[in-house]
Amino acid sequence: MSKKQNAFTLVELLVVIAIIALLMSILMPALTRVRKQAKAVVCQTNLKQLANCFSMYANENDGFFPAGWIAGNYPPNAHKRYWMEALRPCYMNSGDLRLCPVTNKFSSETNGEGGVYVAWGIFEGGEFGEQSTWWPYVVVGDYGSYGWNSFVCNTEDGENTFAPPREYNWKTADVKGTYNIPLIGDHKWLDCWPIQEDEPPPFDVPVWTEYQMGRICMNRHDGYVNWASLDYSVRKVGLKELWTLKWSRVFETNGPWTIAGNVRPSDWPDWMQSFKDY
Predict the structure, then answer these.
(1) pLDDT tens digit string along 116-144?
(2) 259 Rama sector, left if φ>0, alpha if ψ -120 to 50, beta otherwise
(3) How far is the C-alpha of 123 from the C-alpha of 18, rounded, in Å?
(4) Residues 6+ apart with CB under 8 A from 214
(5) Cα–Cα dist 69/74, whole Å
(6) For residue 61, what pLDDT band results from cuts at 50, 70 and 90?
(7) Is beta strand 146-149 parallel, antiparallel or unpaired with respect to 191-192?
(8) pLDDT at 207 over 60
(9) How far is CA 251 from the centre of its chain?
(10) Exposed/middle/buried for 129, CB within 10 Å: 0-12, 13-18, 19+?
(11) Euclidean distance between the first and final Cα of the chain, in Å?
(12) pTM of the model
């Protein structure tokens, strides 16, 4: 009588390995998508908290937003007028709240802008946590991958030397159409002043362009970026949809880069042509 054989044969083992490999090849893309979606949700949660910080700031300052730019030769305390420092008491210095989870924080003290998957910062020019002498609107050690729509500010008379005229600005949230007015969102830098004529970036890489939309228009979330609006809600925004938002009081939402403005699909850079039109 032959003994019962309990061990796997080599053929059976190879078949099992092949099945596992096949299942992994099927599941990995799905798992990757799930991870991306989870990070996008965390990104929106971060922006919701930052939007709430703007709301808290406004409530404590008679409805007005941070002052933003200031004229002159970078006076002391200029950093307190910009969003990172102005909101800091609200987010308790939690730096990672300024960081989209699909991006990486700078690992060394290097001044610079960010990119699709890289944060801006970390700033030099003094002691950690102090106003930077390299650029006094920032604090040494700050970093992030979100940026402010700098038209949302309460710049005072005669203080808008470096930015567009103050009458372009949204000084409070007490205006119409707040859902379509960007506040803070995915960014290669910490601020921007888009205009309707801004051209899209030619490549989806961290290149610095003369057009402000180049700081925002990037494929960080599969054809979308996340932005909080002036009503403090958060949503994903299509890359071509960026040109339909009301960035400033004078921004034309039917400008040359919109369907209403007769943009053609072939007008967009190659990397953007497959994205949804608006």
Answers:
(1) 998 998 888 888 889 988 888 899 989 99
(2) alpha
(3) 51
(4) 188, 198, 199, 200, 201, 207, 208
(5) 9
(6) very high
(7) parallel
(8) no
(9) 20
(10) exposed
(11) 78
(12) 0.85
Residue 225: strand pairing partners: 237
Provide the residue type at 58 as one letter: A
- Strand blocks (E) in the chain: 120-121, 143-144, 146-149, 182-186, 191-192, 224-229, 234-238
DSSP letter for each residue of 30-60: HHHHHHHHHHHHHHHHHHHHHHHHHHHHHHT
- Is residue 265 helix, strand or coil? helix
Alpha-carbon 206 to chain mean position: 13
Per the listing, tokens 């969102």 go with 185
CA distance 211 to 198: 5
